[in-house]
């Protein structure tokens, strides 16, 4: 009887929160841990609260997604990242308050579409925010149409990632424009503001010179700088999170790359294929032992639907995504380093904060830290396993990791460490990939774009979406 009363109360609270949102389309009220929710109510609660990071936690001037919700000290961002490898960091410059994430903003734009579709915010209100972001970016630092990794959300000036990485980042730009193209498809009304938004997206999409980043070779280079040119000398090799970058680069109607570039530095690279079997599961792609961080699949497949997706080499991308995820989970269950807390319901290694800096966690780099986004954002690939993890994170770990912006970035039971931070690139996929699991909304928008279909055909992909 008591359990039934708790369930009724929990349902009532969830309904009340939704009703409050509908009455107040400009704001979203946070909720605490409500045990006993149905799967659908739990998914809705997690999506809605996570979206608050992009809506209430965005930069107050530009509307850009902040790289992180907290501040770290770093002259260049690598100073903070390298703390994970025991490199001393005595930087005095705060990184965080104005650091807009270009790629994370793209994820936030996709999350905004979800928020409108689910009634958490009003359509006109959302369009106003997206126009603010687009107008800011039209006047911000840009290099042959390609944006930097980080940008000052107050001034639009580039924030250097490193001495050489001080300008164009083609990968982050691909995430940004993936989000904007989805917005262009969703906001197709006749209202003048929606037309204006679409015009701005067309301008950015048309200006992005992907072909410039080939440097006249059959390679696609990650960075270019007016100060350093292609001195980073970092081709975008496969397999990792950058498949979307090649698809966007091939899809460009004005500055598209050739399939030779894709073959030369992605599908033709030594790190593209795997073919080994781990825990009885064959992993088609990637040069990491037991697979790399789980964001490899999650970033691209926010827009690209892996269901029925195959390339000219016969790779099945849903098989790749599912195998990678299940291997990651099986590794956590095996737990060869004997970390406290790992189990069949507490798993998921991907990039994010740790007790000693930022690291790309995976079986090769296992520090005992679980990122909730890893399992949750795999929902379309492993729905049963991901739901089990989500419910554990929320109901059993919620008192330590549930906050006003959803789950904090990571935790380690073994080290008794629980992050207070949230990162755009980890929060965004939670909202988007849960929605793709529930309705396929972002897949429908992105995969129906003629330019995207043309780019995928150029690279030799087959998909039920491609006409």
Key traits:
17 helices, 3-stranded antiparallel β-sheet, globular, disordered N terminus, two-stranded antiparallel ribbon, 467 residues, mainly alpha
Describe this structure in words.
The chain has 17 helices and 15 strands. With 467 residues, it is mainly α. A three-stranded antiparallel sheet has the order 3-4-5. Strands 1-2 form a two-stranded antiparallel sheet. The chain has a two-stranded antiparallel ribbon with strand order 6-7. Helix 2 packs antiparallel against helix 15 (424-438), helix 4 runs parallel beside helix 6 (170-186) and helix 5 (123-138) packs parallel to helix 7 (192-207). The protein is globular, with a radius of gyration of 21 Å. It starts with a helix and ends in a 9-residue tail after the last helix.
SSE layout:
Blueprint: H1 2-23, H2 39-55, E1 72-73, H3 77-81, E2 94-95, E3 99-101, H4 102-117, H5 123-138, E4 150-152, E5 158-159, E6 168-169, H6 170-186, H7 192-207, E7 223-224, H8 243-251, H9 259-267, E8 277-278, E9 281-282, H10 295-298, H11 317-334, E10 351-354, E11 357-360, H12 372-376, H13 383-396, H14 398-401, E12 402-403, E13 406-407, E14 411-412, E15 417-418, H15 424-438, H16 441-447, H17 450-458
Antiparallel strand pairs: 1-2, 3-4, 4-5, 6-7, 8-9, 10-11, 12-13, 14-15
Summarize it:
This protein has 467 residues and is mainly α.
